[in-house]
Amino acid sequence: MQLRPSFICAIGGVALLSACSSVDNSGTAVMYGGNPLTYGSSVNEAVTGAEPTTAFGKALKAEYIAYAQREADEWYDFFDADFFAKKAGKVAENETILPEDPANWRFDAEEIAQKRAVRDELIALLDDGKREEKPDTAAIAQARYDCWIEESEEGWQTELISQCWKDFEAAMAELRAEPEMAATPAPVAAAPRLFTIFFDFDSTAITPVSERVLDAAAEQWASSMSNVTVVGHTDASGPATYNQGLSERRAAAALSELTNRGVTADKVDSEAVGEGELLIPTPDGVREPRNRRVTISID
Q1: What pLDDT sits at residue 183?
Q2: Is the domain of 57 the same as that of 120?
């Protein structure tokens, strides 16, 4: 559920802890809220309303309607069911509806920065023509990202959170893939799969979000048994010598988690670059959450 006041709404004698006010998305998304009392009409309006004119719009509308119905029918979360039903309705109006901004959900600053990095890559792919090239896959990626955001905020359906993330990663892998050439003189090696985990400031602790990324990386490795490269990074805050050691400890923490998941150590090359290869260029001394990371490349 998004940022909202809470009170008791009664539906058919069942008391639901929800909110019935609109959500202020602060300019990052269309203003639409969730209301347990209007879920049915919102779904009906989305289903019977005008069809989007693009293949991506049609697929995304269907994804949001299906997710809204699951929220209501399986989990009795009528607030978020109405929220996503209204989002489906906005898609039907041929508006450009973006993936959810994590800043509009109940996450701390570190989680927002980490999840925004994921969102930024998704939006970049969508804006690079993937809505038109692979409309069904692009719609799945956006819908599963929103599922991951919503369920992560609630935090109790761990299997669903993991499944949303796996579905999202699978769709993203397809969106990242370059189109096959009509004819090639020789077989072209598949591009390495890249996984990224992020860390809190001056920390080597593996976050719950990173646990799921490591799960996906280990599953990818198990399907290929290929070589793995683990690279530790830091941001530009603190002395360079300290950051070098911190990046080494982060790489070691990621390597330990991977071996615990079955990746054999002799298949892994580990290195650390400190603050030498910033993902987001910053002046020296600046804290930047997206630079505090470990990348895992699987051939």
Answers
A1: 58
A2: yes
Those residues with Cβ within 8 angstroms of residue 69's Cβ, 6 or more apart along the chain or in another chain: 43, 81
90 and 207 together in one domain: no
Residues 264 and 163 in one domain: no
Q: Chain-centre distance of CA 155, in angstroms?
A: 14
Provide the CATH number for the domain around residue 230. 3.30.1330.60
Residue 183 lies in a domain: no
Condensed to tens digits (0 to 9), the pLDDT of residues 222-261 reads 888 889 999 999 999 999 999 999 999 999 999 999 999 9
Say how many Å lie between the first and final Cα of the chain, rounded: 38
**Largest Cα span, the chain:** 69
- pLDDT tens for 180-193 read 665 566 666 667 78
- Continuous H helices in the chain: 39-48, 55-73, 78-92, 109-125, 131-133, 135-154, 158-176, 208-224, 240-260
Q: Is residue 187 a part of any domain in this protein?
A: no
Q: Which residues contact residue 264 at a Cβ distance below 8 angstroms, ignoring those fewer than 6 apart?
A: none
User: Which among 103, 98, 105, 51 has a CA at the least distance from the CA of 79?
Assistant: 105
Residue 186 lies in a domain: no
Helix axes 55-73, 78-92, angle to 10 degrees: 170
CA proximity to 69, closest of 32, 42, 103 = 42
- Structure confidence by residue, pLDDT tens digits, 8-58: 333 333 222 233 223 333 333 334 567 777 888 887 887 887 888 999 999
Whether residue 79 is contained in a domain is answered as: yes
Number of domains in the chain: 2
Q: Residue 243: which domain range?
A: 193-298
Instruction: Clarify whether residues 83 and 147 are in a common domain.
Output: yes
Nearest residue to 97 (alpha-carbon basis) of 130, 125, 73, 126: 126
d(CA 250, CA 244): 10
